[in-house]
């Protein structure tokens, strides 16, 4: 029997793109629709999907929101609920048998610029009653248009003598700011390593204490990814509500040797220190030691790079993320 996948045409295309790509790769036929999704509005938390095989309908939700909070209406609606940010300490998992952990995705480009623009206009005209913020809806499409295709995310061997970092300062996340500051200082102090980057400047210079670590201007997205590919080491620390950010998924996809502070939210399979990530607690001395080891011990660095790329391919790709949710719902992906 033929299978067709329907994606809510009111979805946030920027955040949903990862899963739409996975659905297309697995099922082939994916259509935007409003038929099954009248109760949902445009949001930046989740995308609802319907898989139709013959007369059978299976309802899936892909939750990419930063918060560990479950959307109860979406949970009631679906047959399986895939979520990036699940905090087992704050959510009683026994209450949600339909819930399953998916890996950290990130926005990817799906269509040509013309194709993106046409879909933005067409989807808005057919679903504008469910779009509370018109400007945001179109901003999602514009931003998605300027992302890279998934094929760009290829692993590149590194030499160990160059590190790039660019990250934001957060108004309410002082621990994150401090961890990142420790990392920047450590990178600057390791002998034989050229460091480039720092904190991105804020339009309002309203977070004191980091002026010496702040760049003069922001790095364009295209330059950012090129420099990350060349960087011997990358750094990940949870931000808002201990969430998995886009950086985590991108680092995995690029096969980067990652230094990371403890991860609190679930992953499909836990990361292992010394195998596919180098975990630290975040203090300045420990960060320095980690940077020094990963830049000087080439065998260890390449081991982390190779293993994290294998982890991504096995557990985090768009296809695998879709398969995880389909398996929870008892839907065959045809593989």
UniProtKB/TrEMBL annotation:
Protein's UniProt name: Glycosyl transferase family 1
Domain of life, per lineage: Bacteria
Source organism: Natronoflexus pectinivorans
SUPFAM superfamilies xref list: UDP-Glycosyltransferase/glycogen phosphorylase
